[in-house]
Design brief:
single chain, TIM Barrel, seven-stranded parallel sheet, 7 helices, 36% helix, globular
Length: 240
């Protein structure tokens, strides 16, 4: 118990003291260093759609969200790095047409799905009052664009916008995944709680720019007792 308390204290202390390391665009070498750090920790790195049976060892998940057109063009370089490092990566695509046409990512999906990359839906259905109808439209749009049905989904974040509706949607979806046509989602903590998310889309408090903080580039001591950690990235922010 004491050792677990000390690890928690170390983790929270590191988080409280984090600082801006780099503002977007970031170098891919920085992302590579994050991968190498995680591998040195010796924790299991698993694909996002694995079973969430509780274990004694912490797990790390890597995920790319394709939020913008720049993510479509920038994803290949990051995926090559993931594959070269044997990282089981998951990629989630918007099909709402707001930032890019779904078909623009078709070649990317075809190429890397054949190499074992998981592709799923990144939904923004909760912006509509009929969010279940919107989710079904997105599911069918995904099928039309990429030739297969998405079996996993994540939720596109819009801050406080439509937050109550987002919570209502995710609460319902978590209890009805199969009925909605999906096998897995991490849309609520009931499905998968993340002890911490390390991401590339935080804001520099001084400039407002997208920033990577020191807790991502120098990972704090990770807990060893059944916790989940997510490395969340958006390829539009990264350059070779």
């Amino acid at each position: 118990m004491l050792s677990e308390y000390i690890r928690r204290w170390q983790l929270n202390r590191a988080f409280d003291k984090r600082r801006v390391v780099s503002c977007a665009p970031y170098s891919l070498s920085l992302y590579h260093s994050v991968i190498k750090q995680v591998k040195r920790q010796g924790l299991p790195i698993e694909r996002l759609d694995v079973s969430d049976a509780v274990g004694k060892t912490s797990r790390v998940f890597f995920r790319h969200d394709i939020d913008y057109a720049g993510c479509v063009t920038g994803a290949a370089a990051m995926l090559e790095l993931n594959l070269n490092e044997n990282i089981p990566i998951a990629v989630f695509l918007r099909v709402d047409g707001e930032a890019y046409a779904p078909e623009d990512a078709a070649a990317l999906v075809e190429t890397y799905r054949a190499k074992g990359v998981l592709f799923g839906l990144h939904t923004s259905c909760y912006v509509y009052e009929d969010y279940l109808g919107a989710l079904e439209r997105e599911r069918l749009a995904f099928l039309k664009a990429y030739g297969f049905e998405p079996k996993t989904f994540t939720v596109h974040g819009l801050g406080e916008l439509h937050l109550a509706r987002r919570l209502a949607f995710t609460s319902y979806a978590a209890k009805n995944l199969k009925a909605l046509g999906f096998d897995y989602s991490d849309c609520t903590a009931d499905l998968r709680p993340y002890h911490r998310v390390f991401q590339d889309c935080d804001r520099d408090p001084l400039t407002g720019e997208r920033a990577v903080f020191s807790d991502m580039t120098k990972l704090p001591p990770l807990l060893r007792r059944g916790c989940n950690y997510l490395i969340l990235t958006h390829p539009t922010y990264w350059v070779a």
